[in-house]
Design brief:
This protein is α+β, with helices and mostly antiparallel strands. It is built from twelve helices and 53 strands.
Length: 751
């Protein structure tokens, strides 16, 4: 990926260009010391005069109104004043003494509040009509740049060598840290990935999280870094300096480096779709960088965006290639599950690998920020319309009604889809994951709630709906798994940089503490927690530094992008996939033969988990014996020898460590003695007494077992209810009790 640089050498400002912004229809606006604001077409590079100014403008910003309208313009001046002006040229408000000295930066928030900062060290908040609301910050050094927080409840600003995050609400603590060894000139806060970007006079650019922890620091450049800006999607950012424009990945490594020969780039702005970057140059020019050569690969296909509106498709095995042209600029591309999805500003194209020549095409109402795919469906995240679910023939399936989510800032890490469910981190509470039906878009009445903020989610892609699992990483970078229909969160790993489910089977891979980890069957934790460590394969990889990302997990190959941008591949054993195929088809003998041939402990453990999940007890007995789990083998043999199907189900639930479920099965089947005896074996004496009294059965049997237990342990009775029961019964006969138990078992066999 790189910038395709375009500059109009014949048309430019007469003086230095200090600021650049984008309008609603992808037209650029530039501010200069020649008292003008010019309007630019990024394709033809033609410009026209937009506004004449009465003084030296330092910065300006458009208010993004309803449906993205940009009617109100705020312009800051070097004499400390600012004006609010309509696009038509009508001045709504002029504040002559907003600051003492020049206003350096001016920014609108989404809700219509205006923030200004300047050489006097003041940061002020104004209303939409230009009325002062608060003097938020007053320090003794100039403030060079301000950015609103993603939720508009705070402001990021820089002064001297420091970066600050100031909450708007009184009483909340300000976060601050030393960011650079020289003056911090520019900062930017991305609303999608929630990361902070900065540059300074120490000739470096850096990436921080919101706590001030350094994630990336560049090597010193030859000149001062004068500008930085995030792409709206948060996947990459641009860096500007003297005669230099650089495109970088969000982890910091460089995609492309360009010599511009236009002087220092003092300000950078991106289009809302993240496809074009505009830079304000020191010689008065405006530089346009079109993002091209975006490349995605899947299976044997490689797709490259060679021009703004042209893609190249290469068959890597058969060495065939073809090109497709589009009428509009390509904005998003996604390729998975044998389908390629391409979106422009007004259309969506669906290409099937079986037929590249006749794509399905349909109109889209708004710009698309994300594309998510699963085996049968895909969804488009549109800025105003929300999440639209389609099948691969272009038919609209559903449009879930989701409240409290800003779709233009929705990260691909906080949305996941499968053939039956759509999962989404709640926009109002980042500790909650909500679920929606794919076919109807209806919100389901179950959620997953966690104690910490959830950073990333992913659904497994198994075809069995009852086996649907959600994996997620929380704020502490701990990896967890839970069933979607019942909250049962289990921690799998700590210090997790990235994770991903296999595209077809129930395998999960992760990068954890510089190790590559694969769980052949992580769902086994819900049948026997002892199996979780036994189905895990861990490999130490010194090449996997912090912030490495898993790109794909297809069949037995895992593609990983390291922090430095290099792509590496890790292979996974092919045998688990063969095992899954055999088990899903019910070919258990074939699965056993495969494990005996391979002779891998992890494969036997995976077979044990699968067979227990499918309640295939004979196979489970063989698999558990192979991993030398003698105690579990004996219990499975006991279950096999039980004739009652209800009793088998209850014992299996007990094996899965779900005693309450086992008790419910017993009581519903009127197997009261078994329910009481189970609680006795678990030393839940009072619960056993509750059952005996509730159903008025086996009270003397329970008392006999209780007194026998006390005699063996040499203890006195300490439970008053059992003392009362002993007083009421007074005497019991073991022979009579044994006869009652035999009669109970005979009745079970008859039933």
């Amino acid at each position: 990926m790189r910038f395709k640089i375009k500059v109009n050498e014949n048309t430019k400002h007469a003086d230095i260009c200090t600021s650049v912004k984008w309008g609603l229809n992808n037209e650029a606006y530039s501010l200069s010391d020649d008292y003008t604001i010019l309007k630019w077409d990024p394709n033809s590079l033609e410009s026209s005069k937009f506004v004449d100014l009465e003084g030296y403008g330092t910065d300006f910003d458009f208010l993004q109104g309803q449906r993205g309208s940009t009617d109100l313009l705020a312009i800051a001046f070097s004499d400390g004043s600012f004006i609010l002006q309509q696009k038509t040229g009508k001045v709504e408000k002029k504040e002559k003494e907003a600051h003492k000295g020049a206003i350096i930066s001016i920014k609108w928030s989404v809700d219509g509040s205006l923030a200004t900062c300047g050489e006097d060290g003041a940061l002020k908040i104004w209303s939409k009509t230009g009325i002062i609301r608060s003097n938020l910050v007053q320090i003794d050094k100039p403030i060079y740049c301000i950015v609103w927080s993603p939720d508009n409840d705070g402001i990021l600003y820089c002064s001297d060598k420091m970066i600050y995050i100031k909450p708007l609400q009184a009483g909340q603590k300000q976060v601050q840290w030393k960011a650079h060894d020289g003056l911090v000139l520019k900062v930017d806060w991305n609303h999608t990935n929630n990361l902070i970007l900065s540059c300074g006079e120490d000739c470096k650019y850096k990436v921080f999280d919101t706590y001030g922890r350094l994630l990336f620091a560049s090597a010193p450049y030859d000149y001062v870094i004068t500008s930085v800006a995030w792409s709206p999607n948060g996947d990459y950012f641009a860096v500007g300096a003297y005669d230099m424009l650089r495109l970088c990945d969000k982890t910091g490594w460089t995609y492309s480096f360009h010599k511009t020969n236009q002087g220092s780039i003092l300000n950078i702005a991106w289009t809302s779709d993240g496809t074009i970057c505009a830079g304000a140059a020191g010689n008065g020019s405006v530089i346009f960088g079109h993002v091209v050569e975006r490349c995605i690969t899947y299976d044997k296909w490689e797709i490259t965006l060679t021009e703004d509106n042209k893609i190249q498709i290469i068959d890597l095995i058969d060495e065939m290639n073809s090109e497709f042209d589009f009428k509009e600029r390509v904005i998003n591309m996604s390729m998975k599950y044998n389908n390629l999805i391409i979106t422009t500003s007004s259309h969506c194209y669906i290409y099937s690998f079986r037929n590249w020549n006749t794509p399905y095409i349909f109109d889209i109402r708004d710009s698309v920020s994300q594309i998510c795919q699963c085996a049968n469906y895909f969804c488009l995240v549109e800025v105003s319309s929300g999440i639209m679910v389609y099948n691969y023939e272009g038919r609209l399936i559903s449009n879930p009604k989701i409240q409290g989510t800003k779709f233009e800032h929705l990260s691909h890490k906080k949305i996941a889809i499968s053939n039956d469910l759509l999962a989404l981190v709640d926009g109002g509470n980042n500790k909650v994951v909500k679920f929606y039906e794919m076919n109807s878009g209806k919100a389901l009445n179950f959620t997953v709630e966690h104690s910490l903020e959830i950073l990333e989610i992913n659904l497994n892609q198994t075809e069995m709906i009852g086996e649907r699992k959600l994996a997620f990483v929380d704020q502490n970078r701990d990896l967890h798994i839970t069933p979607v229909h019942k909250k049962d969160i289990v921690k799998l790993a700590a210090m997790t940089d990235s994770f991903l489910w296999n595209e077809k089977f129930d395998m999960l891979c992760a990068i954890s503490d510089q190790r590559f980890v694969v769980w052949y069957y992580p769902t086994s934790v819900y049948v026997d927690r002892d199996l979780l460590e036994q189905v895990k394969v861990s490999k130490e990889c010194t090449d996997l530094t912090r912030n490495s990302q898993i790109l794909s997990f297809q069949d037995t190959m895992v593609q990983i992008r390291r922090k430095d941008g290099a792509i590496m591949t890790q292979s996974v054993s092919p045998y688990p996939a063969l095992l899954f195929e055999a088990c899903e088809r019910g070919k258990w003998e074939k699965a056993i033969k495969l494990c005996r041939y391979v002779k891998e402990h992890t494969l036997w453990a995976a077979l044990a988990g699968l067979s227990l999940q499918f309640k295939e007890l004979n196979t489970a007995e063989i698999a558990l014996a192979a991993i030398e789990a003698a105690d579990k083998v004996l219990f499975i043999q006991k279950i096999i020898n039980v004739e009652s199907e209800k009793a088998k189900s209850a014992l299996l639930a007990l094996f899965f460590k779900r005693p309450q479920e086992a008790e419910n099965i017993y009581t519903q089947a009127k197997l009261y003695y078994r329910a009481i005896k189970m609680n006795i074996k678990l030393y839940k004496w009072e619960r056993a007494l509750d059952l005996a009294i509730q159903y008025n059965v086996h009270q003397d049997t329970l008392l006999a077992y209780r007194q026998k237990y006390l005699e063996l342990t040499g203890q006195q009775e300490t439970i008053p209810r059992f003392e009362k029961l002993a007083y009421d019964i007074k005497k019991y006969d073991w022979v009579e009790i044994k006869n009652k138990i035999k009669q109970e078992k005979a009745r079970e066999q008859q039933s």
